Amino acid sequence: MGIRGMMMHRVVGGVIAGLLLFAAAPAMAESPAELISSFRLKNGEVRVVRDSTLDRIAMDQARAMAAKDDLSHDALGPFNRRVAPAGAGRAAENIAYGYDNFEKTLGQWIDSSGHRKNLLLHNASRVGIASAKTSSGKRTYWAMVIAGDYEPKGKSKGKKDKEPLVAVKREAAPAKKPKSSECHIKLLSLCI
């Protein structure tokens, strides 16, 4: 084998070694939006994409919780007020602390019925995800905001319509008691 043959042998060997190393390297981890989308697709919902406004809202929430070292949806005020700049018709928020990586945090949310319901928010198309560490660096706080039902531009009817609708469980109003003036006779708290 001549010099040219030896060089060709080395080049081919190097290419094969490189391909083997590339094949053996761990695959790039999926992004949080891709992980959420995979979960949503398996459960009959559409995929979501990252949204810079929702990322900012999530980051503000994660930083506020980390600064206070307090897991609370109200760390920066009511959710419906915080999410209003997103312009979504529907939105939900998941928060957590403890894990340093998103995959484990997502697993925690999937295993919780309320958080799972938020991950599967119907018609959601956008998501924002953020994490922040406490000043000691010992605890990581996570916030995820998922939203959908965005109104096409130019269809807004007024300022009131621009605020997002957020599903909130409300108690039924108590039945009205008759006024004492409607009673002919009141006996032992009974109106007759």
UniProtKB/TrEMBL annotation:
Specify the domain of life of the species encoding this protein: Bacteria
> Per the database entry, which stretches of residues form a coiled coil?
none
Q: Give a yes or no for keyword Signal in this entry.
A: yes
Domain (SCP): residue spans on this chain: 35-144
Q: Where is the signal peptide?
A: 1-29
Q: Which Pfam families match?
A: CAP
Keywords for this protein: Signal
The name this protein goes by in its record: CAP domain-containing protein
